[in-house]
Every structure is written in C-alpha cells, then in structure tokens.
Protein 1
Amino acid sequence: MRCALLEKVGSPLVIADVKTPEPKKGEVPIKVGACSLCRTDLHILDGELKPPKLPLILGHQVVGTTPDGQRVGVPWLGKACGHCPFCKRGEENLCDAPTFTGCTKDGGFAEYMVADEAFIFPLEGSQSDAQLAPLLCAGMIGYRSLGFTEGAKKLGFFGFGAAAHLLIQVALYQEREVFAFTRPGDVKTQAHAKKLGAVWAGGSDEPPPEDLDAVIIFAPVGDLVPQALKAVRKGGIVVCAGIHMSDIPSFPYDILWEERRLCSVANLTRKDGEEFLKLAAEIPIQTEVTEYPLEKINEAVEALREGKLQGSAVITLS
Ligand SMILES: [Zn+2]
Ligand SMILES: [Zn+2]
C-alpha cells in the first residue's frame, strides 16, 4: 500500500510502498478515506516528541471504512490497558501503557491501517470523510479542554487554528463569549475569528478588553502562559491544550495568586469522543478543511507550520 513514511526525524515525509498491515486479534482493518494533520504530527516529525519507532506512519485523525462497510473514526488514543490505576479510575487518557495512533503504532497517512475495535467511533452523516477528520483530535481533545474551563462565560483562545475553529462553534452554542488571540499582526486570522463569532480578536501580546473567566492555550508557545494568566480574573483558569510546549518563562507569583489555576490536558477518553461527536452532530459543527493528496503531504506540513491554514489540513486517500 501507499503511505507517507517518517524515516528520519527532521526530514520530509517519504511517499513509499509498504506491506499492508494485518489485523491482530481485536483489531479491524480500515481503508482510509481521509486523515487530518495535527500539530502533534509536526512535534513528532521535528523530534520535539521522540518517535517511539522508525519508520513510522503518522496521522491520528482518521476517517475510513471497515470491511463490512461501516464508516469509522480513529482517534489519538488507539488503546488503553484497562487495568492500570488510571484506567480503573476512568482516566484512560492517562493510562500507564497506552497505544497512540500514528505514534506508538502506525497511523492514517496510508491507504490502509489497523485499529483496535474498542477504540474507534462509528461516524454517521452526509459530510465527507475529509470534513469529519478534524473532529477526531482537534475536536475531541479541544472538547476535553473546554470541559476544564468549568462553564466559563468569557473564554479566551490563544492560537486560532484547527481546534479553535471547532471549539468556537461549541462555545457559542453553549452561549459563551469567545476572545481570540492570534500571532501578533495576524489580522487575517483575527478577522476570520470575528467572522466566526468571536466578540474580540487581537494579538497574543495585547490585553483583552475585559478580564476573562478562562483561557485555553492551543499554541505550543510557553511565552503565552504568563500572558494568559494576566488575562484571567481572580479564580480564573488557564488550560494548556497541547502535547508539547516551548519552555514557560519565569513569572511573578502575583499573576497566579488569588486562586488562578493553571493546568494541562492530556489525550482523550472514549467518553470525550462520544460526547463530542453527539454534540458536533447536534450543533452541527462545520469544519473548514484544505485537502491535499498524499503525494503533497509535505506541502500540508509546511502550511500548518507557517500558520497559513484557515481550519485544518486534511490528506485525502483515493
Ligand atoms: Zn492531534
Ligand atoms: Zn491503563
């Protein structure tokens, strides 16, 4: 089968022919229709997260079809052990021995993949595979992050990429106000955020017009943590939604003082995924995607890296 292979950290992905994977017990083979690119793929590609194996097929926002014709989605959490203390507590996102799609096992930038049958989601609806793909990580892990904001009415997003595009729709549906912070000077994305319903949009170096109840940081930039703490009111919450972030600079205690909380969100549970898909259908969430054929995956990587995309880059397999 054709796939995009990560052979060496820091090098472009290589389009290659490899052996089609065989499902083991409890796994299903999936013919991939589309797989959306995530910032995490870039972190692995660039070596900020060390790939557990090489060569590796990246991609963990997969939409495809099983042999019996069921359309399914494959998320980042490929499998959890089910018996570690975290799994037993219902925190399978923190499992001690997890499988991560497109990381500890091969993912969806390929014609075929195999997935654990207990960790995939059936997908209904008339949207294309490409339109649904970003729901599988940007949407699901974004949704988990939103839960950590505890019903905040005035909500800031630092970084207005794939996840924020989806989460603003959830936030507005839940009658919250969204304040969008972009790269300084990125007036195009700021205008786009306002078009999607943000009450305010500005650079991450600007203070919001009023104190916020909570902020979610989507951008992998540690410098944003003190900025976000300054943007929230007493008792406010700052959630770091990414899997990797550059170092956080030291900051004066008084921006954390007064019961402000700083936390991170890791991975997802199946419950997050099920709840989010239900909500996505109810709203209904519209994704904005730029489609690339597999052969042009490195162009998609560069577009994401440079912040050129509105919404998500999706690789389509034909
Ligand atoms: Zn992801
Ligand atoms: Zn476990």
Protein 2
Amino acid sequence: MARTYASVNEAWRELRNARNRAHEENYRTPQAHHGYDPDQPRVPKGHSDGGQWTDTGGGENTSEISSDATPDNEWRPGSRYAQTRGRGSVPVRIGNRWFEAEGGQAVRLAAAQARQHNAIARVRELEPNWRPKPSAHETVEGLIRTYEGEARQAETRLAELASVGVCPGPFAAGSIPARGPERNFTTLERAGVNRFGYETGCHTCGTNDPGTRSGNFILDHQPPNALNRLSRDQRLFPHCLTCSLRQGGWISNRGSSR
Ligand SMILES: [Zn+2]
C-alpha cells in the first residue's frame, strides 16, 4: 500500500514543486504585487530555501496571500501560497478590503490554502473543469473555513473518482511500470500484475477474484490513457472485470457528455 501511494504522492509533489517554481518566477517579474520588493535578499536557488525571501530583520512579513477561493476567481497554476515566516503578520485581501492574519492564524490560513490548492489540483488533473461550490467569506476565519470546505469537497471528489477506478483506489498496493499506453503486455507483466491481484486484490474494490474467464486480472493503466493529459509515466495495477467495466463506462460517459 505504502509504495504505490508514495509514488503517486511523489508525482503530485513534483507537480506542486514545479508550480511553486513557476510561481517564484512570477514574483521575479516587475509587475507590482502588493508588498513585493525585488531588492529584498533571497536565499540562492539550490539552497533548501531557494527562492524564498530571507528575513530582512525589519520584523515585517512582506509575503502575500491572495485568495483564489473567492467564487468568481479561477484557480490557476501560478496562484500564490501563503508564505509565513516567523511571527509577522500577513496581509490578506478579501473582496476589496485588507486584513492582517497574525501568527497562528496565518499558519492555519497557509495550511488550509495549501490543502485546498493541492486537492483541487489533484481533481483537476482528472477533471479539468471541476470546481468547488462557491461560498462567501468576509473575514480571515471565514476564508480559512472556505479553503477547508473546498479542500473537503475536492477530497470527496477524489474518493468518488477512486471508487470508479479512474485513479489508484484504496486497495492499490503493488504495481509495475507500464512501457506505454498500449495493451501489448508481456507474459512477465501479466504474471506480475496477477501476483499483486491475488495477494492484495483489485486496486479499486479489493476482490481477489478477477472475474475474468481466463482467471487473469486486467492490467489497468494509471493514470488511465484517456485522462493522462500531462503524459505522466503510467503504472499497471490489477483490476477486476467489474471495476474495469465501470471505469470504462465512466470515461466514455464523460467523453460523450462534453
Ligand atoms: Zn474491482
């Protein structure tokens, strides 16, 4: 179990890091962002704190949170993370007003925002048009609740997607690397996926019975070919016939409803 989830999480982590790097690049452009001082010292890239602001000693935190949780605001890859350093306060814009998030509140806000951002990014990799239900907020605490609520919606959606087999399911344990999207599996690959299937079950429903006439598990590409827009390296997980058919039905319904 740990291994496959770890590999999936690692992929997401890489995606997030890439976004963070892109986001750092955005900050280098001279567009006037609130509180951004291009001359402020930075830790050199390559250092573990690379690209982040260093403490100027003034005690004022110049980093910014801008809410991408507001109903009329599209999520975008370069959207900002709250970067709380030390004990300073963080300016937060809600509607047309600025608030100060202090200390622990700023930390909770950053955590809620990161959780929301990460969960929505994971859903949107499978469903690019997915969005949480909009909700209004007028205070920093309200914004934190909005982020948490949107993260929960996205996490619920991820669980639904896992239940129809379009992402690694709760029983995903062992998998093998796919050579490509094709289904020209070798005897060795079939045997490898069968072994995981007999030991730990279908990755979506957990059954040890593949339900096929041949007694073989179906080798399931994850991410599924039809949803692999980012051309991620795919892996092969054991699928039972029922879950494989459900996955196929979900993908083709989705295709025809677009
Ligand atoms: Zn199954």
